Structures are given as structure tokens and as C-alpha cells.
Amino acid sequence: MKKLILLSIFSILTLVAQAVIYTWNGGNGDYNDPNWSVGGGAVCCAPPSSAEIDISSGEVTLNVNRSSNAIKISGIGSLRLLSGADLITTRGTGATFADVLEIDGAGASVIVEDGAIFRLRNSNNATRGVYMHSGASFTNRGTTEVDINDANGSAIYLEDVGDTFTNNATALLELIFSSEIGILSFGTFLNAGEIEIEETLDNAIEFRGSATNNGTIEIENADGIGLATLDDFTNNSNGKIYIGSRNGIIGTIAGAGFTSQAGGTVVNRGLIKVDNFDDSIGEGVLVKITDFTNEGNIDITHVSSRYGISLVTGTLVNADCANIRSKSPFFAGNTGRLINDGNIFLDTPESSMIFATAGINGEITNNGQIEDFQGSFDLSAALFINNGLVLQPISDTYEYGEAVPNFLQGSGTEITVNGNVYLNSDGTNVIGFYKQVGNEFITNNTDAICKDTFYLSLDDGKSCPVIMKIKFENPIIPDLLNANEAMNIKTFLQGPLDVGTMLMDDDLRLAGLIPLTDPYNGSQTITDLTVLDDNGDDSIVDWVLLEISTISDPSNVFRQIPLLLQRDGDVVTAFGGIPNVALQQSCETEYYVRIRHRNHLGVAAVFENTF
Q1: Which of 199, 256, 337, 388 has its CA 20 to 30 A from that of 130?
Q2: 103-107, 306-310, 475-479, 502-506, range with the lowest pLDDT
Q3: How far apart are CA 31 and CA 74, in angstroms?
Q4: CB 334 within 8 A of CB 363
Q5: 440-443 and 430-435: which strand pairing?
Q6: What is the per-residue pLDDT for 429?
Q7: For residues 244 and 257, is the Cβ–Cβ distance under 8 A?
């Protein structure tokens, strides 16, 4: 008898821990309608938060804030969240369903309308967050938020080719955390809205089926690859992919930022930007066994000795008018090939191009333009075929107006150069002219002084001539163009100053106590004694000392000029004129101007050198 009692108690405890399944009885209706069967039994009311939801036919709509344990949609069942609805689904302890949300079947669907929120959580070991299979569909027009912190599978998993996940133009898909792959899709994945991935403990995204991006994808942190595509993938002209950052916050990517491998065709017509990847095993963009065509922009902003672009066994074609920018080097190995018909901008302190030394080497063919900003590109590499143009920086010093030769390398046979050299990247402010025949740049504008970056317009006969950056190291010496800067200086001595009239007393002059030679360094002498006459407001008060130093080093005083101070605060020379000061021959843009007096504290101001 005691054993029977204990067994009954155990059965009751088990029943309490087990979530009750509420099954929709079919037809279309509101979530709050009394059209649910409880545990396969009686018809009852809307499910409580502890229930699991099973919808196998009909469409259930929700327009209020609700919560549930876990949800399964199967057959021809559909769950639609209307604007204003907020559904939180948490797979809690004792849940019967393995996943937080399962969508099973070609007629099974979930639709989140604009203005609705669908939140998916798990509080114990769920297999997956969103599990789709057998032709299921998920359409997000509002906000879907996934936080799966202890799963044995992907946060979002499309198992079959017929499954479709659509993130609409008004939608936000936010993946807060995944302990496995964030999004793993063997089906069709379409994004026209925004996808934000905060952190995953594996790859952030794996597209093993076809995928198209017309919206924005931002991946902040991933312990694996940022975005891997193993099938056809298209990033259209409106598509933007940011890997290693989210909402401007820089994160970390443990592996490659973007990979295309194991087949499929990849076309980028938008932007792929990689901010951060692992410096020991990562790459910015890895191309392997894939045809990859770039018709838009690839931007590798991470500085590393690892590879910004790694070509292993595939072919990367940078099409006409397309751009690749990288602060990490290119790698070409095995049968990897780069064909450049567009523009490549290299700004890496390491070697810009690295070729494999063992096995079958890769190959790079340039039919367009390559800007080698730091001069680390090896033009002599045997597997670099140059039919286009390579820009390399100048590392020499040139006088104002002197020709600057040899910054264009390559045949240039199919490329003409707009002769104007610009100070700005938008093609404004012409500061010189480039003569392609003699390969020389002659400045005709003093705006070029102390600048080291210029822009040159190249025209290869295509519809997109490009203005490319050219770097010089101190190309023009300032000479004496700024030798005589007129300075109108006004200052006052506190003791002699009458604040009512803003005039100083000239008691020293009246007493004949102003020395004819300055008391500072003895370099200036009053030779015209009429300077010391009574000149009203311009009467002399005393000697002062003008000092000029650089902002970068205030102790570097390169001018000291004794001057005379008048009653109205004007500072003049020993001859009574406005002082002209020869500035230091440097590229400083600002200086300190100080006025000292033998009995008062000095004052200082910043003077801008505009040449």
C-alpha cells in the first residue's frame, strides 16, 4: 500500500512538471477564441503561458501580448502576429516539444506583421530556436528576436531545400545569442530588411542553400566564420553586409569574415565590409571552389598581416567599375585566381600580394587599376600579369614647381589619364597637371604646399572613370612663400591700464626711462627719436618681447623680436610700423604667439599659418 501511494505521488509530480499542450481545432480565428483542445481532451479557452501550442490547420491570429512554452506549426497550420502583438515563446522545463518553434510542412507558416514582435527564448536544453523543415515558411515583416543560450542546434535552422525564410523590407531579425551556428539554411533565405547578430559561439551564418540579400546584415561577434555561403548567393545593389561590427560597435570574428566555398556562384553588387577578423587563422574574404564576381564594393578595413582577400582554389572577378579596398594583403595560392577589370585599392604595411611558394601557384591578372598606397606591391612577381595600371607612391622631396616623375607603373596602353591633379577626392581644387607622355606631375598652385595626398582621374574608356589617390612624402618645400606674415597685435599691461578709457599710462616715456635699445636681447634700437614723442593714443608705454613657437613643441621658440607697446595696446616695431614676421620653414599649420614684459606675466595666443 505504501508503494502504491508513493507511485501515485510521483505520477502527480510528473504531471505538474509536464507542460500541457493546447491544440487548435482548425479554421481561422483569434488566439483568444475558445477553439482549443486541452491535452487532446475538452475544448477550452486561450492557452496560458505554461502551455505548448500545436497548430496543424487553420490560421490563428494574435493581436495582444501573450506568452507560451513552445509552439509547433504543422500541416496547413498558420500563426499570424498582427500589429501590436507581442508573443514571447520560451521552451521551459518539462516542455514536450524539442524546439522553441517548429514549423513542419509545405503549408505550415508563421507570419509576423509590421508592428508585431515575436520573441523566442529557451530556459533549458532546446534542440533549436526556430526549426523549419519539409517546405515550411517564415515571413517576418515586424520584429523577430531570437536568444538561444543553451541549444544543441542552430538558433534558426532551415533543414530542407523547400523551406523559405523571408525577412521583409520593414523587418528586423535580431539574433542576440546562439550557442551553435546562428542561422543555418539549406533552404531559401531572402533578406530585404535588417538582420543583426550580436554573438554566436560558432559560425554566425551558413547559407547552404540559395540566399539573396537586398537589405542590411550586421554581424558583431562570432567564434567561427562571419558569413559562409556554400551555394548561390547574391548581394544586390541595395545590400549591405557588415562583418565584425553592429550598429557601429566593432566586434570580433574568430575565423574568416566572408567565405564562399564548396560550389555555388556568388555575386556581390552591393557592399561587403569586414572590420575585424582573427590575425592568426582568419581572412577578410575567402574564395574557395567558387566563382565569385564583385560588381559592387568589398571593403577590408582590418589591418593585419593575414589576408584581406584569400584566393585558394576559386576565381574572383572584380568587374568593370567595381572596387576592392583592403588594409590587409591579397593571397593567391593553389589554383586561386584574381582577374581585375575594375579598381583595387591597397593600403597595407605588409606585402600587398602574397603568392603560394609550394604546389600550384595562384595568378593575378590586372586589366584595370591598382592603387598601391604604401608601395608594397611586387610588380616583378612572376604570376602577376599587368595589362592595366598600378599606382605607387613617391618617396622623395621636391621643390615647388619641380616635376615629380614615375608614380605610374604598368603599360597603361588601354588607359588614358585626365591631366588634372586634384587636392580633393571629389575632383575639385586643381593643384597641378600630370603629363602622361613624360610621366611627370607639375604643380601650379600653392595649395599643394605641405600636402602629401593628391587625386588623379583615370579614364579607361568605361562609363566609370575613377579618381585615384596618390601619396607623396613632402612633395614640395614651403621655401619662403610665408616669409613675411604681417601681425596686428594688441595687448595691455594691467598696472598702467585705465579700464574706463582702455588706454595705458606712459609714465616711463614722460620720465625719459624707456631705453633706446631693447632690454631683452639688444637686437633692436630706436634710431628715430620722434617715436618717443607725445603721439596721443599712440604714445609708447614700454618695450615688449614677441615670441613664436610651434604648437607641436612649445619650447621650440624660433622667433624673438623686441617691439614697442603703445598706449592703445598696439604693438609696433622700433620704427613705429606693423611687425612682419618670418615664420619657420615647416608645414606647421598653427603657432603660439606670446608677448612677454620684463615686469608682467606673459600672454599667448594661437596663430594660424595659411601660407
Answers
A1: 256
A2: 475-479
A3: 17
A4: no
A5: antiparallel
A6: 87
A7: yes
